[in-house]
Amino acid sequence: MTPLSNPDRRDLDAEALDWFVRCGEQPTAELRAWLDADPAHRQAYERWTREWSQLDALPSAGVDGLRRQLAADKRQADKPRARGRAFWLAALSRWTPAISALMVGGMAYLAWSQWHTPPALYAETFVTARGEQRDVTLPDGSLLRLDTATRVEVKLYEKRRVVSIPDGQAVFQVQGDATRPFDVLAGPLKITVVGTRFSVRHTVGVPGDDGVRVAVDEGKVKVARAEGWGAYFAAAEVLTPGQQLSASADGDMAPVTPVASAGIAPWRDGMVSFNNTPLSQALAEFERYGATGLHVRNAAVGALRLTGTFDPRNLGNFKRNLPKVLPVQLLPQGDVMEIAPLS
Predict the structure, then answer these.
(1) How far apart are CA 71 and CA 263, in angstroms?
(2) What's this model's pTM, rounded to 2 decimal places?
(3) What are the FecR protein domain coordinates in residue numbering (predicted)?
(4) Mean pLDDT throughout 53-68?
């Protein structure tokens, strides 16, 4: 294969950058066709992928200017005829030196941070079993209420406080300390507060509800992408009392919606609430608290919508009333009951 000349290389880099900005990490059929058309296309695209992936480890101060420039360039790209060869070549000429400078600074920063990051003053992991709830008081005075089948990992540093939720849900009453921000990491999101009360749900094993949900009872929190190059360019959302936000497992955030105080973590009172929730998803939520003895085989039955508040530890009332609110019947099937359509 004949090596590309410098002008051809710049044209190809500009074209690859165009594809990367448009598609990012979500390849389309058109992008795949372009990548498969020539090995040089894939190499150019992978170069941009590697370049941007390096931003994940860089200090945020150095990325702020690049973020603002990208936002301005994307606005310009949305204008008619703006996304031409000249536009992307100009963008390429701006971004490549900026990224290179950040790479050099970032490597120095990483080397420094590996040797100078102080150890956590406090580190502990708390786990609740299926059907168990637990109250935890942290050394800084913050209170955590853990729901069933939940795992939280706590690290307190001199200048910051970090709690990770790999799975489950919890309510936080954060002790105010402006010098030590409190970050909650849940899936693709990072929730940052100073002092407030809020709930975070990240239930990876519940079909249809495996993303993240944040609801604020008091104070305010900032919700943003936790990692990935998109974290530097996506806008953060600030939630105030009576607001909630949901995000998919990929980190796509839905619009902020209102939520009543009673609807923020009703599990604290031993209840679960559903609002137009698919029956199959409701059963998966019940199963987080214990075996239900209920099974759905029919997809149409699983898609039926359920609204109401129930005690997950006492399903007798739920079983008795389910056929009254949905067109189903409960049929014995060995040691379980099948929720079946009416015959």
Answers:
(1) 36
(2) 0.65
(3) 125-222
(4) 52
